Amino acid sequence: MSLTYSTERQVAIAAVRRACALTSSVFNKLVRNETLTKDDKSPVTVGDFSAQAVVNIILGRTFPKDPIVGEEDSADLRGDSSASLRERVVELANEALTAPLQTGEKEQWGLGPSNARTAEELMDAVDRGNYPGGRTGRMWTLDPIDGTKGFLRGEQYAVCLALLVDARVQLGVIGCPNLPVDPANPSGARGCIFVAERGHGAYQIPVSASEAAAGAERRLVIPSFAPDQLSLLESVEKAHSKLSFNERVAHLLGVTRPPTRMDSQAKYCALVRGEGGVYLRMPTGTGYKEKIWDHAPGSVLVEEAGGVITDSRGEPLDFGLGRTLGENYGVVAAGRDVHSRVIEAVKRAKEEEAKGDAQGQ
Ligand SMILES: Nc1ncnc2c1ncn2[C@@H]1O[C@H](COP(=O)(O)O)[C@@H](OP(=O)(O)O)[C@H]1O
Ligand SMILES: [Mg+2]
Ligand SMILES: [Mg+2]
Ligand SMILES: [Mg+2]
């Protein structure tokens, strides 16, 4: 297989893998004052900051000219009052960067025991994620911990990285440390990485580098679903998606199974390996704009697994408008056959809702 983005793919997988090891280890040690509340009231932890520093450092070494659109910035880590938080981030990031080279990693990637960075270098690395995005050129987008609320609950979360070229996602890598390797065995081993390169398919690979080198990758294709086999994949957080609307759509689609609620882009990963059949995210009506890092890696994964992803009106997701998806309204992802039925059901559900509202007045 001749890959167009072979180096990008290897480096992105290594970066996500090291960030997954970091976040898994930090979870067990997290203490109360290591979580902050951002201006938008959402949580951020030392895990988010240090994972962003690690991924940005790794990308910066091999692709120094590539800008990065990352979720976090270092403002809350700088200054005297944040000294203990900052020290913790430095400790965690350096632990991840200086771990011995793993199978497949290269000396020139700047990893391994002699590669510790200073606090200043790490803060600057976090801030390399401040690129505003846009329509042209190469750029990466990073969500160091997607589903921070799931992470804090000990449930699903994901380390998500994508490469965009002229606003088109070319490569997506999603690490899910808490996702069961085999969906048929939910209490079995956990931790997997999902990789999709445009034109080259979607794969699940082991989270461990040595197991991955042993060749345990699995090609993923979304299967066909009969209506009675479908279940909606949706957010756990009510503030992120209008779940009452999802219920209406499920009813119109003839879905009888209860929804599967899961945090983060792990939902896209579940979808591409044949779980649920529909990803549905409807805006709650607060004017929130979806962020590109919350959907870019998932979108290429879905498309490479033979699926379709659009907003809830059937419009393509536009990754070229900056850090957000702009006017895109919600997200629908599914296999080709199911997707068009979902868009139709969303339309009917909107009409029903409007009628209900009018009658209620
Ligand atoms: N009002 C809102 N509507 C939709 N998404 C929101 C939202 N507020 C926050 N989010 C996003 O929802 C993401 C989690 O997705 P999900 O609901 O599928 O688990 C969060 O990612 P982070 O956890 O990285 O901040 C955050 O970016
Ligand atoms: Mg966040
Ligand atoms: Mg996110
Ligand atoms: Mg995040």
Automatic annotation (TrEMBL):
Cofactor(s) of this protein: Mg(2+)
EC numbers: 3.1.3.7
User: Which reaction(s) are listed as its catalytic activity?
Assistant: adenosine 2',5'-bisphosphate + H2O = AMP + phosphate; adenosine 3',5'-bisphosphate + H2O = AMP + phosphate; 3'-phosphoadenylyl sulfate + H2O = adenosine 5'-phosphosulfate + phosphate
Q: Binding residues for Mg(2+), per the UniProt record? A: E71, D143, I145, D146, D294
Going by the record, the broad EC class of this enzyme is: hydrolase
Q: Which NCBIfam families match?
A: bisphos_HAL2 (TIGR01330)
The protein's name is 3'(2'),5'-bisphosphate nucleotidase
Q: Which organism is it from?
A: Laetiporus sulphureus 93-53
